[in-house]
Amino acid sequence: MADLLQVRDLTTHFFTRDGEVGAVDGVSYSVAAGETIALVGESGCGKTVSALSIVRLIPEPPGRILSGKVLFDGADLLQLPADEMRLVRGGKIAMIFQEPMTSLNPVLTVGRQITEALELHQHMNRQDAFRETVRLLKLVGIPNADQRARSYPHHLSGGMRQRVMIAMAISCKPKLIIADEPTTALDVTIQAQLLELMRSIARDLGTATILITHNLGVVARYARRVYVMYAGKIVEHGPALAVYHDPRHPYTVGLLASVPRLDEPRKTRLAPIEGQPPDLVSLPRGCAFQARCSFYSGGCEGQALDLLEVSPGHYSVCWQGRKGREEWAKT
Amino acid sequence: MGEDVVVRVAGLAMHFPITSGLFLQRKIGLVKAVDGVSFAVRKGETLGLVGESGCGKTTVGKCVLQLYRPTSGSVFFEGQDLCRMSEGQLRQVRPRMQLIFQDPGESLDPRFTAADIVGEPMWIQGKAQGPAYRERIAELLSIVGLAPYMADRYPHEFSGGQRQRLGVARALALEPTFIVCDEPVSALDVSIQAQIINLLDDLQQKYGIAYLFIAHDLSVVRHLSDRVAVMYLGKIAEIAGRDALYQEPLHPYTQALLSAVPIPDPAVEAKRVPIILKGEVPSPINPPSGCVFHPRCPKAFGPCPTVVPVLADVSQDHQVSCLLYPPSWPPSAPP
Question: Mind telling me how many Å the CA of A139 is from chain B's nearest CA?
Fold first, then answer.
């Protein structure tokens, strides 16, 4: 499959009073047309910054994309002039954010916010754009779409607002949707509705999706390939099945062990990852996870952090990653 | 109900008036946030309270602690009805019942040091005197896994997980027998969540504290609770022992909730077909007639829109409020 998007060695730093924060540090990933991948990690690991860098929405200053390439549809997005970039944003690449209340404009009706995109990107006139908006709102399961298009965001519930965001995202038939924690603020039954909706829409329109989340369950339900991020770097990636069943980075092992699972007998104790994520201003030499790692050995400081292939298509930066869980357990 | 019950709630209701007008605050409606809730928490056990946002679970927690004075019903704590006590009498009881909040960033005063935060309950109760006070703070900090030298730091100098540890230390300061934990881990990252869950678990083992654990994450609730109550629109839909509820959920809402939780395993997820509920939670201002769940219920049938089910024993220690089960039929309308 040809890759729709290739991110290569992307490095985005923030220059703050406390020092230079390496929010994203040499991250590479790819998405094929129509494919769903997930970026997983905890707060501050750089998953959102890496996605915002793709569409160049990093506030500058304090942030700056220092190096890397974002190849999308044959062009490097980082080199595009600003006016061409505007056509990509919302047109070819759409975004869905976590909090629909803060990403929708409170003083415009929800319909107007969708027609705006249609007029700008699809060159529709107002009437056509409004008709198309009502169709989209129906498609994402909003009852009384005709009236709802005239409502303001605060009239709608959280789930409905997120449906509006999805309608807006698919309005211009993008090739790629970046969904940043799309269901985190919602209840489980609404989350299940929306994930199902996003999956069927992506399938019908052939849209590729980058799903950014910290919820390992949502990833398992939704994504075919997974990238695990820690302290600004991708520490492991591969097919979802391989990463979940045979994790080769101690951080992934720890993450999977720390969540209670409904389908397994109840454990008497959870196995948390001890300690705190590192300060991105002053990272240790070598592996950033070493201080919390239960498989730490003397060699971890000096190791280069390159992704090693541990099984076909499955990569880990842990230099001990080839060994796998069984052998780790012995040491 | 035996001797070992710490908290017993009977027929608890909390209705908030909706008012209109600037001066003449006319009452134009009622939000029935909690409407007839009964349950008991036994000594040293955890009752999990789950439900979606707006179902009234936080209001139940606040009513139990009398932070809201309930509209009707009673809350028995160690045998005394808190709803019939004056504020002065409540003050005598309050040390033994405490609260842990959701967002440790917002629930800690940024101008207080860690020692002030943990020691404030002792000040209020007049127990903060002499060198014993500093010693007690150092002891509390080490119980929750913080170092005593951190006592003079301010909240912003702690990470999210550490702040929640401070919240726990504050709740422990007066040696409570009962703590309401309101979403104590939902603002934390998964790896940190597990640390706090283990801490709460250890404290219960060590001090025999009973918890009312309010959360929306069903897997976390299963991990910590002995018994679980599921709330929907101000009412309890189902209440049972943990294993019974998770292995044999009876209420269609409980079944849908459990199937909606994604399991972190792609192989398992590929085989599961979640029950997707239609629509959203209705407004508690104007709740549906009959069973409040019927407009979304995949198993709704004839009488559901008209007959109000009652919470009744379907089997040993397993109560459900659903007309699919004959015990839930109200006496006036036999099945």
Answer: 15
